[in-house]
Please model this.
Amino acid sequence: MRASLRWASVLGAATLALAGCGSSGTSGSTTAGNTPPAPPKLAMQSAVGAGEGTLNLIAWAGYAENGSTDKKVDWVTPFQAQSGCKVNVKIGNTSDEMVALMKTGQYDGVSASGDATLRLIYGGDVAPVNTSLVPNYATISDFLKDRPWNSVGGQMYGIPHGWGANVLMWNPKVVTTAPTSWGAVFDPSSPYQGKITAYDSPIYIADAALYLKATRPELKITNPYELDATQFQAAVELLKAQRKLVGEYWSSYTTEVSSFGAGNSVIGTAWQVNANLINGEGKVKVETAVPSEGATGWSDTWLVGAKAAHPNCMYRWLDWITSPSVNAQVAEWFGEAPAQTKACDRTADETFCTTFHALDQDYAGKISYWTTPTKSCGDGRGNACEDYAAWTQAWTQIKG
Amino acid sequence: MDPGVDPDQGLTRRRRPRAVVRVSGFLHRHPLVRLLGLLSAPMLWLVVAYLGSLALMFAAALWSVDSFTGNLIRVPTLDNLRTLITQDVYRTVALRSLAVAASVTVVDAMIALPMAFYLAKVASPGTQRLLVAAVLTPLWASYLVKAYAWRTMLANDGVLSWALRPFGTSGPDFGVVTTGITLGYLWLPFMILPIFAGLQRLPDSLLEASADLGASAGWTFRSVVLPLVFPSIVAGSIFTFSLSLGDYIAVKIVGGSTQLFANIIYDSIAGGTNPPFAAAAALFPVLAVLLYLALIRRTGALENL
Amino acid sequence: MTLSPRARLALRLFTGLGLGAIYVPLVVVLINSFNVSQTFGWPPTGLTLRWWAAVWDNPGARSAVLTSARVGLAATGIALVLGTMTAFAVQRYRWFGREVVGFLVVLPIALPGIVTGIALNSAFAARGIPLGYLSVIVGHATFCIVVVHNNALARLRRMGTSLEEASADLGADIFQTFALVTFPQLWSALLAGGLLAFALSFDEVVVTTFTTPPGLQTLPLWIFDNLFRPNQAPVVNVVAAVLIVMSVVPIWVSQRLSGEPTTGGRM
Model:
């Protein structure tokens, strides 16, 4: 059990940012029309030659550990020994920071989240990836391939790395009947008033939209990240009502874990790792589920810089980081489902992949992955949708 | 001075170089040049670099952001300010922040004054040294760690509830009150130190004179000590008031579901979503602090920090 | 003013209670540094030394301490120079702008850190200056000037000018007067101001957040990052405990060196 707790360095900063998804320029891509233009045509690597001796990466904290955080957590040093590429890692704290850093052209690759990838692809900052040069790509979970946040027109722009869902978590000692719907955290007459917790970020509006998508079909919500004025208003109203029930908005998981441990919170949205951590401490037991409406979540991808000075080292890194044992290490340290199916045989905790539903396609299918909201709805409604700046201001209104 | 005569009568081994003597003489005769010299670097720093930065930021308050490209649109518009003024939520949060900052300041002053008085006027010299060190030491324990320690203290089964349980009560839930407690704790040393320094400057002879004239200790405290140390209290309040007004981290740790004004500023800029709106929102704490400084200008507090 | 024994006792009790309250959270920090719970669950279900051991294994913490020390020393150095200059300008010359200078000096600490941070950040961006050691040091020095300024100002006021005038009358040039007469009276105030400036810089989070580039990590930023990693969070308590203990050294040294004629104990 201890082993499964050695998970995430920094989900805090990382996922916070994933969530916050900063996004200044959500999309240089989307123009005034409804269909985004094609990304710039960039050459794809055709073969992996000799390493260049150096590799400059931008990564979420916890994705490229070299032993400086914990001596036992190190998959960069063996890579350097094996490939001869000296790795310099720059930690990106937010998606915006990552985009800005990639635009300098000084980096060979980045571990980007769903809200940064398209910006980089359409901005011409990353190149298409020749997946045939990455042998480990073959055994990556199929449901992560050719998805809207990592590919354009059937062309992959990166190698999927890991993913996770924002689950519903509860303390069964207090919440005695297992909830099956997000209604449990939105019901105005909830008996758990003051003990409900919610995620402290504008992106949490998507969770409300996801619930409304299922419960108020007349709103015609198709995608919780593409909300027009009416839909958006409905989600905001739902959250304003929920505000009276919420005891604490959590923004880092130490906050949530300690709240459940101390009894300040008994039900709310959570990451699987939080649940594992609470159960590991043993003081309080919690259960988690993806309710019937589905859930929001994240999916991260390693991308190759368009101006990479060390592309051969980068391709070696792509294969290394998605190799079964390394991917297993990262996933366990970070606390997410590994993208590599074979990683599941290599985890220190044998039940890790089951706990994180790593191979569960149905589970993955229920997740609406974090994407930055833009004015463009991505469908026939045109530019009628609320962008992330509007989401941010609404979040202030909701918290009041 | 006469450069021909050794100014220190041969007591120093080395003669002053002629240039130094000449510069010194020039400076001695021209106090204005001395003053300008003294002011040059600090004013370059504070006016050009600091005020310049502030001006640059507030100019950005009039801009907006293109929601497709995320680029700044450098066309002046009052939209940000209009949003801030017309929407109720900003007024609510602003008033809440002011209330928290004011209560933290008042409570800190009430706690700090007796402590500083004991330190400065009652404790023996040895004890005084020890106690001053005891007040200074917590400043070195990280602010974040202390804020998080308060989370442990204030949680539902935390230290406070644990201590209060025998009395059949428990601590407050996370919210405005717990935020105030935590901020008050964090900034208390910043209130004690200026008051202590002010009391130390207060001559004992004044207090003795007051006693000789028949005033009781309480009367002396009210009519002599308090008026004279008031500027120091106000000086301390600059720290407690503005540090509280600018805090967005402690409220995230112990604030439960509440938010303060600095959170609005931080949220607009942290996501990189709307820096102009953050700049516009920053006008509120700046105006509040400037107003406060203007109010206390007459007390001489600015010289007593 | 003579305090009744009752009043003295009341003051002593109040001060004792106040200091007690100041130290309770610090004791919690210390206990949590041995707490087996990774998120500081209370009361501790067990005690462990593994967080203390982990600190020795953590090069990140050590380099963050070094970064903070470097930034703090540089910022304090700048603040010492600028703050002394403004103090002289305000205290030794009668001119119209004294109050303005006093106001300008206090402004960076009086305005909330988030304002100063964002303003400096946008200024660096506008002038194309990349964030780095320089930007952090500039940010810290800006709000540190005031503590040096005020300490120097109070001392200059108390010193008066008679000794300096005597020195000039005896033929010393102004540099000699400063080095041999003014500075020896001034330096303990500068030491106290410098120490406070260093402490402010060493624990600053907000301005630092907006003026550091990714990759450069001062100690508070390191703590911020680690506080939110469960398998790292308790390590933060160890660092804080070590800092509290180590802070006794500079405080003791400054008290020793300054040898201030103490005013305590007359009532």
